[in-house]
């Protein structure tokens, strides 16, 4: 009933919007800004250039949306990511005009329509088949091995930072039926989960097959955000893991900054990883999202809690104390994953304090950072340096840390030696290095940068980190964080009041 009412509201909203289309084109909305969590323009502050540039595409997109309809029991209904995108535009939540995003939405709508049509063949509904039938299929597959590839191909979205890949995937995921076996997870978190499962099944003849079976039983549709392979252990696992997953009927939807052929470029033993790329291209439609707009940088990018300079220890500690309020920060120890514990130099009231050396110059990884963000909503980091060849490993850890903070919508208070762009100026890709001007006699050896780090993975990842650091310290992001904390604290207060009343 709830879904039916939602569909009626969406249809009524779209029809009302089309009826008022002429009037709305005459009376321009006054305010537009950015939905930083979704990667799209929203209604808050007027920009005549944006409105004007969006008009040529505006009418054509309206006509395209009109074709998105299905007929159920003789009644025309509408559903899918394109319809939701249309609804948000109609409600003024998003600004129309990004042809790159709309083109990608067509691919997502194609996938959505195919999944709806072939849901039974794909075994998407978790209530449609019994456990007995599942056990029967498992036994039959052991007696008569056969391919059970899904009849629907997945989708691999790739492109530059801030182009809205995550927003589009989430928009698609949110439109899928709640009863489906589906999962949306960050790639770092997914791989941590895989390693944890492998550890659990240690001693089994083929633990990877067992893990693939568990994952496919839970999620036939798997949505992975920020697909990025930098670790040789992950690279070697992915080939066999996804061969098993695809063979079990899993459908993959992924976002990445890298094209399939560029994944794990220059990595150790990459020849063993290449079969995975071939399998990925076979089972997924690759779609590039191009855009001249980095939506994250359209926020009111104020300095926020990002302070530039050296010897700012007293300043960051003062701000940290303000964030924890009247609580007294003390050393703590928190559990991360698989029984591991991490020492926190200072922690109080959901806030943790670290020096850069404590968090990024030690052998820590995504698992540790995810554990921190589950225990603390704010991380204070003192002394982020300029990155180069001498601290390349620490740069990798910092990139991962920022990814995890952003994924968990946590807050970052930090001091750094330069702006986000300046931190990564010495990190370049091979292509960038080839186009750099050679040394001339007018350039002294003293001015030459011997600390230049030529690294493809880090060179591509730095743009995402710069973009996310910019957004994390924007007014909009910090306001969203404050609202999130208020919502979490309110239920806790209600529980305390109820306990006192009892």
TrEMBL record:
Keyword Nucleotide-binding attached: yes
Pfam families: AFG1_ATPase
GO CC entries: chloroplast; mitochondrion
UniProt keyword terms in alphabetical order: ATP-binding, Nucleotide-binding
Family: Belongs to the AFG1 ATPase family.
PANTHER family referenced in this protein's UniProt entry, alphabetically: AFG1-LIKE ATPASE FAMILY PROTEIN (PTHR12169:SF29), ATPASE N2B (PTHR12169)
Protein's name in the database: Lactation elevated protein 1
Organism, as annotated: Nicotiana attenuata (Coyote tobacco)
């Amino acid at each position: 009933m709830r879904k039916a009412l939602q569909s009626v509201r969406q249809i009524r909203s779209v029809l009302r919007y089309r009826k008022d289309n002429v009037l709305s084109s005459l009376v321009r909305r006054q305010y537009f800004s950015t939905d930083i969590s979704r990667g799209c323009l929203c209604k808050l502050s007027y920009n005549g250039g944006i409105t004007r540039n969006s008009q040529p595409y505006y009418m054509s997109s309206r006509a395209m949306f009109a074709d998105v309809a299905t007929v159920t029991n003789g009644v025309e209904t509408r559903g899918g990511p394109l319809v939701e995108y249309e609804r948000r535009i109609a409600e003024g939540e998003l600004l129309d005009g990004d042809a790159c995003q709309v083109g990608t939405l067509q691919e997502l709508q194609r996938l959505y329509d195919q999944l709806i049509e072939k849901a039974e063949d794909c075994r998407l509904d978790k209530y449609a088949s019994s456990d007995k039938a599942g056990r029967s299929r498992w036994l039959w597959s052991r007696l008569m091995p056969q391919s059970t590839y899904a009849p629907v191909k997945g989708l691999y979205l790739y492109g530059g930072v801030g182009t809205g890949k995550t927003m589009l995937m989430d928009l698609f995921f949110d439109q899928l039926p709640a009863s489906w076996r589906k999962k949306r997870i960050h790639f770092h978190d997914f791989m941590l989960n895989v390693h944890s499962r492998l550890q659990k099944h240690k001693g089994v003849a083929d633990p990877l097959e067992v893990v693939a079976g568990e994952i496919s039983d839970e999620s036939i549709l798997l949505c992975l955000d920020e697909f990025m392979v930098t670790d040789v252990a992950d690279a070697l696992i992915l080939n066999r893991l996804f061969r098993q997953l695809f063979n079990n009927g899993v459908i993959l939807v992924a976002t990445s900054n890298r094209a399939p052929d560029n994944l794990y470029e220059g990595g150790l033993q990459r020849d063993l990883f290449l079969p995975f790329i071939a399998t990925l291209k076979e089972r997924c439609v690759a779609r590039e999202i191009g855009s001249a707009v980095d939506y994250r940088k359209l926020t009111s990018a104020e300095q926020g809690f990002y302070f530039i300079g050296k010897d700012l220890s007293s300043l960051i500690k003062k701000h940290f104390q303000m964030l924890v309020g009247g609580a007294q920060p003390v050393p703590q120890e928190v559990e991360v994953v698989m029984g591991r514990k991490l020492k926190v130099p200072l922690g109080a009231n959901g806030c943790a304090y670290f020096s850069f050396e404590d968090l990024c110059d030690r052998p820590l990884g995504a698992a540790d950072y995810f554990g921190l963000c589950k225990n603390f909503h704010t991380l204070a980091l003192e002394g982020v340096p300029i990155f180069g060849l001498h601290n390349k490993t620490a740069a990798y850890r910092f990139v991962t840390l920022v990814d995890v903070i952003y994924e968990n919508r946590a807050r970052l208070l930090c001091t750094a030696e330069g702006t986000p762009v300046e931190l990564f100026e010495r990190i370049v890709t091979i292509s960038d290095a080839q186009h750099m001007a050679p040394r001339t006699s007018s350039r002294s050896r003293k001015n030459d940068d011997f600390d230049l780090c030529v690294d493809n993975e880090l060179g591509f990842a730095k743009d995402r980190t710069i973009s996310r650091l910019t957004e994390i310290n924007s007014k909009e992001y910090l306001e969203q964080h404050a609202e999130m904390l208020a919502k979490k604290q309110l239920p806790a207060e209600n529980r305390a009041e109820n306990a006192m009343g009892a």
